[in-house]
Amino acid sequence: MEIEEHIADVDGVPTRYLSVGSGPALILLHGIGDSASDWQWVMRKLSGGWRIFAPDMPFTTGVDGAPDGFTPESLTLFVLSFLRTVRIARAVVVGHCAGGIAAIRLALDKPELVRALVIMDSIGLGREIHPAVLMEAAPVLGDLVIRFARSPVGSLQRALYRSSLLFSRPELVPSRWWTEQYRLALEPGFLQATLHMLRAGTGPFGQKIIFLDRLKELTMPVLVMWGKMDQVVPFFQARDAVGRLRDGGLSAVSGCGHMPHVETPGLCADHIHSFAYEKARR
Predict the structure, then answer these.
(1) What are the tens digits of pLDDT across the range 248-282?
(2) Distance from CA of residue 47 to its chain's centroid?
């Protein structure tokens, strides 16, 4: 089954999204510095039992008023608008990294829309984050980095740096991931939007937006999925999160870094399907 690419008008903003499959709705929300294309491998493996949608999040192309536009509230409003646009009334929601913050906030604000929730290597669950991320968001330095990364040589260097940070085995990363990273870095507004998002969510002492204490308010089943070798957000944050959930489980992905859906898509898809299959039919 082929993945289809569409453009939808989401509150007046042309928004790219990928879709495939039929069945209960499954929404995939990607993280900072990435795009909906990172879900392509998981989408193919899940397409037999799910109607899957993966939108480009606002920080892929930027929004008016950034960085104030990159808040959990604004990201949740985007997801709500997207769901209305594609006519999804209720879904299993999967959020990775910054997409995890959007997914958590959506589940807190509109629980009736979320059948089940998967939080994957998410920010917002602890203050700790890799120092390289804080350096990338730092005043002056961050601006210099993206100025260099806008060039063809710089975009390749950025992809190489990100691969070493995000994956436990960069040499096994699919070639399409490298191609997409190169394309994104040269896309007008992308790197600036990424920098705005990093600065909105981090400060000199780590992450600024923490939802850990609010996880007990979630009423739907929640799966916390995490790469055990994640360098960006440490694995112990996943254990802390699960301990605060009413109905939660932990899926620890051995030998995997920050992006299980790219590094181990088959295992990632199996975990999502086995968790959500029964929950989606409640």
Answers:
(1) 999 999 999 999 999 999 999 999 999 998 776 55
(2) 19
Residue (of 65, 73, 58, 63) closest to 17 by Cα position: 58
| Secondary-structure percent of the chain, ordered helix, strand, coil, rounded to 5 | 45, 20, 35
Place of tokens 């096994």: 172
Sequence-distant (6+) residues with CB within 8 A of 258 are 97, 121, 165, 166, 167, 227, 230, 231, 232, 233
Q: What is the CB neighbour count within 10 angstroms for residue 236?
A: 12
pLDDT digits (tens, 9 = 90+) for 51-102: 999 999 988 765 444 444 568 888 899 999 999 999 999 999 999 999 999 9
Q: Please, which residues bridge with residue 248 across strands?
A: 222
Question: Which 8-state DSSP code applies to residue 231?
Answer: S
Domains of the chain and CATH, by start = 4-129+208-279 (3.40.50.1820)
**Token pair of 46 as six digits:** 């899940």
pLDDT digits (tens, 9 = 90+) for 205-234: 999 999 999 999 999 999 999 999 999 999
pLDDT tens-digit readout, 107-133: 999 999 999 999 999 999 999 999 999
Q: Please give the full DSSP string across 157-205, using - where no structure is assigned.
A: HHHHHHHHHH-S-GGGS-HHHHHHHHHHHHSTTHHHHHHHHHHHHEETT
Q: What angle do CA 69, 204, 252 make, to 5 degrees?
A: 80
Q: In angstroms, rounded to a whole number, what is the distance separating the alpha carbons of residues 4 and 222?
A: 28
